[in-house]
Amino acid sequence: MSSPLRLGIAGLGTVGIGVVKIVQKHAGLLAQRSGRPVAITAVSARDRRKNRDADLSAYRWEDDPMALALAEDVDVFVELIGGDAGIAKDSIEAALRSGKDVVTANKALLAMHGQELAELAEGLGRVIRFEAAVAGGIPVIKAMTESLAGNRINRVMGVMNGTCNYILTRMESAGLPYEEVFEEARQLGYLEADPTLDVGGIDASHKLAILSSIAFGTRPAFDAVEIEGIERVSIDDIRRAADMGYRIKLLGVAQMTARGLEQRMSPCLVPADSPLGQLAGGTNMVVVEGDSVGQIVLRGAGAGEGPTASAVMSDVIELARGVRLPVFGVPATSLSDSQPARTAVPAAYYLRMELLDKPGALAKITTVLGDAGISIDRMRQYGHKDGSNVPVLFVTDRTTPEAIDHAIETLPKTGVLASDPVELRIEEV
Amino acid sequence: MSSPLRLGIAGLGTVGIGVVKIVQKHAGLLAQRSGRPVAITAVSARDRRKNRDADLSAYRWEDDPMALALAEDVDVFVELIGGDAGIAKDSIEAALRSGKDVVTANKALLAMHGQELAELAEGLGRVIRFEAAVAGGIPVIKAMTESLAGNRINRVMGVMNGTCNYILTRMESAGLPYEEVFEEARQLGYLEADPTLDVGGIDASHKLAILSSIAFGTRPAFDAVEIEGIERVSIDDIRRAADMGYRIKLLGVAQMTARGLEQRMSPCLVPADSPLGQLAGGTNMVVVEGDSVGQIVLRGAGAGEGPTASAVMSDVIELARGVRLPVFGVPATSLSDSQPARTAVPAAYYLRMELLDKPGALAKITTVLGDAGISIDRMRQYGHKDGSNVPVLFVTDRTTPEAIDHAIETLPKTGVLASDPVELRIEEV
């Protein structure tokens, strides 16, 4: 058996400790499967005295991750610090330059600086692996880069932020408003220090930008993702959507069209009985559509110590086995510009309005929709007391986002709306 | 760019033609992703004059697959002939011996002779890849061999025969008896020439034996799978199970226990709202449970030209990229004997009986169950006319298969059964 693959682990949060535990628990299994032992040489984190749930006494301690990145007795630099710049980026660059391969779970860094890092790594003959960066334990990076490599990918989509999915699921099951469930999630420790990363859709969009790059052979373009978070999803909309057979999910979708690459992250309706609609709680799901394979659905835990560490270890084992692939599946210099395009792919839309209780109100609304070229698939008017507002729901036929935008702009001019209309895309899944 | 990887394709049925189409359609994409062109040198099939849906004029034709296996201008022998012995096995062995790697979709061959072939290949420094052998386009072999390699696998299970799942789904949705839907499936061309391979659970068991081997590091042991097909699933049971919130699926389960490796393929009840329960029609699903990753669910088309060819191409691209792993993830000589064990893991069971309309009948039944140590979770007695038989359903608490077997043997001795009792395992999913 060959010499051990030596890891230096920078960052000893949940995931870092998870990796340490797997290396300790499964030494024999890892050696058998990798063809060589996997060993930890040194570790690094901010606070040495912090009580951690693993015995680290056998490893050299470095206060500075940069020392780990430069250490001569480390083959693979495992970056689990996080953050889209700063020491995470600096230490990865230093590790690559000093001849190390890199395994990271850092989605923000890859979404923002993936191109630069991939070119650096490949120029130096080094490898960066990042299975843990997207959808935790779900092996979506490997599936897309390797298993579906014989396909032209048509679309990739997914529910990739467990916290948002927990909030939306809990709002529906408990009938609670957003603010209350958000507070619950905060108290349960489900939210990032900056909760906008979760509920604002940023974290999920980082992941989408990485998947887009692999799917379409384009440079990662996080800035081009159209992002809307879940902050404005109301319990009313969740109930009304359920009435019509749908669930609301924070769904990321990337697809290549004749106009360019569309990447969107937004609350969408999906059929309640579809795999995405059935996804409850903190679980993640990624759906990939290829021209030969059709639709592949991958589901699993999107976060947490074990699942994320499992993904890190799959990268480590790959390196131990001597497998060396380009960062995004093809040489980084051959990735094309993504030609970002605003969403233009038609879809059905859900529209909810509160009408004033006036004769002819509904006629005015339907006239605006008709004039915008929008035809109605289903309409539902809810009971109301005389003089109170009239809740009305529409599910449109497939129409363009442009037509919907136009209608949303025009509708208030009818003078029969009690509040701003709500529109949500019904993604075809 | 390096020299092309040269394929020789033996077998030009649906899958073979699918592979030809991908190589022709995606030449540029394959070269970019593989780092070298992928080319077809020669092909072979039984009948040269047969009309096939692809232009084969650029490839040398060999009437004998053995000539392809020995050809000097072929790097990878793609075996798509099928069959658990004969020319498929002979030509693979010849290809390995003449220095070629092998890609195959042949589940029967791997389940029956995988150990022997893997040892031959690895002894010669050659590789056999078989992503297409299990669950069509679903990348389950790669997921288990590589992505989950940091986990001890606890259980792997799946619905892996689309024809059986189609038949069971259609029985429920159309309310038709087995025989009628079987005949429909035959007319639609969904059944193998020998339909026992499908409905007898053989084909799915081949796949399960392969997954077991990878999951547990054991020699493939198809003969040790306890197999029951779907022939005896009645529309009555499908309806009664639905009443209780379950669906019946032909489910394969492999799990390692203290007593040894349990492998079973049988019609089981699963909750109707679980991912497995929701699986309709010809789709496949594989569920893998690892000690770190938790539960991963993979879903997609389990058969058909595009999906299966996509899986073959993932193996081809892996070889083009120079990735060379042991056949079952670890060296074949290190695979252990599987210590086959009869199913002993406890589960809840579904029991259906027709009782004679006699006073005290139910008491006699429940006494037998109680004496066997089986407690009842739920019981349902259906309405009946005086003097006609009384349909009764039980869902038991978790109990051992041994206790159930004992009860099934003893129940007829009560003299109150109008027919043999039906028992189905309720697999925890």
In short:
Two copies of one chain form a homodimer. The first copy, chain A, is of the alpha/beta class and 429 residues long. The first copy, chain A, is 35% helix and 24% strand.
Q: Can you tell me about this structure?
A:
The structure is a homodimer. Chain A is α/β, with parallel strands linked by helices and about 425 residues long. The first copy, chain A, folds into 3 domains: about 5-105, NAD(P)-binding Rossmann-like Domain (Rossmann fold), CATH 3.40.50; about 140-305 and about 325-335, Dihydrodipicolinate Reductase, domain 2, CATH 3.30.360; about 350-425, Alpha-Beta Plaits. The first copy, chain A, is about 35% helix and about 25% strand. In chain A, strands 7, 8, 9, 10, 11, 12, 13, 14, 15 and 16 form a 10-stranded mixed sheet that branches. In chain A, helix 1 (about 15-25) crosses helix 12 and helix 4 runs parallel beside helix 5. Chain A is elongated, with a radius of gyration of 24 Å. The model of chain A has no long low-confidence stretch (mean pLDDT about 95). At the A-B interface, helix 2, helix 6, strand 12 and helix 12 of A face helix 2, helix 6, strand 12 and helix 12 of B. Strand 12 (about 295-300) of chain A pairs antiparallel with strand 12 of chain B.
